[in-house]
Amino acid sequence: MDIVIDTHTHSIASGHAFSTIQENALAAKNKGLKLLCITDHAPEMPGAPHYWYFNNQRILPRFLHGVGILRGVEANILNVKGEIDLPSSSDQHLDWVIASFHEPVFKPASEAEHTAALINVIKSGRIDVLGHLGNPNFPFDMEQVLKCAKDNNIAVEVNNTSLSGKSRKGSDARCDRIVEIGNKIGVYFTTGSDAHFCEEISRLHLSVDLLKKHQVNEEKIISTSTSRFLNFLLLRGKLPIKEFENFY
């Protein structure tokens, strides 16, 4: 399985990561990636940048070190209503929006509340992918949420850091179940390193192993080709990115 995009990465702007966007792009080039998503933490995460940082990503070149750059964010799910911590005016500036639970922003609650929050953020139409869903602090009704994700063309991330045990300990078993159920339902998957240092860019081996274990069809893994990924964005209602016309 050939992964050509890392869809979840952080730079020093996130406040607790250690590499610049330039360093991350160079690492992506050296590891053979074609596209790289810049997904720093949104404002409610401690240490994260102001929302102007995300609106101003339009000044980023579409290519750095020969790697295509996707302008994105890892937004925080704020509440049961499924609101995220960026104004709707930011949406036009972003190619790729991850929505995730983070304990400093959304205090772990009941399974019913987590389920409602995920369904509502999916139905908001403002996000493209659910990030690191395996966190055992945020149990949810997997069947219900994954069915909603499929019905609304929202991707499900298989997060390599979650599987490594470095953070969100206990995620591995839950990630396994999410991939198993999601594969049966027919969701779109993506693979994210969740890199907080440039050497972690494209570190996706555990994610790939899990997808292979459950024999997920590559056509459902949008990070396996630039065409799959960019056409998924079109499916999400995004405008074509003219600089990437050779990647469609």
Tell me the layout of helices and strands.
Elements: E1 5-6, H1 21-30, E2 35-38, H2 51-55, E3 63-64, E4 67-76, E5 96-100, H3 111-123, E6 129-130, H4 142-151, E7 155-159, H5 160-164, H6 171-185, E8 189-192, H7 205-213, H8 226-235
Structure description:
Belongs to the PHP family. InterPro entries: Phosphatase_YcdX_put, PHP_dom, PHP_phosphatase, Pol/His_phosphatase_N, Pol/histidinol_Pase-like. This protein has 248 residues and is an alpha/beta fold. It has one domain (5-247): TIM Barrel (Alpha-Beta Barrel), CATH 3.20.20. The protein is built from eight helices and eight strands, in the order βαβαβββαβαβααβαα. It has helices at 21-30, 51-55, 111-123, 142-151, 160-164, 171-185, 205-213, 226-235, and strands spanning 5-6, 35-38, 63-64, 67-76, 96-100, 129-130, 155-159, 189-192. Strands 1, 2, 3, 4, 5, 6, 7 and 8 form an eight-stranded mixed beta sheet that branches. Strand 3 (63-64) and strand 4 form a beta hairpin. Helix 3 runs parallel beside helix 4 (142-151) and helix 4 (142-151) crosses helix 6. The longest helix is centred in the C-terminal third of the chain and has 15 residues, at 171-185. The radius of gyration is 16 Å and the shape is globular. The protein starts with a strand and ends in a 13-residue tail after the last helix. The model has no long low-confidence stretch (mean pLDDT 97).
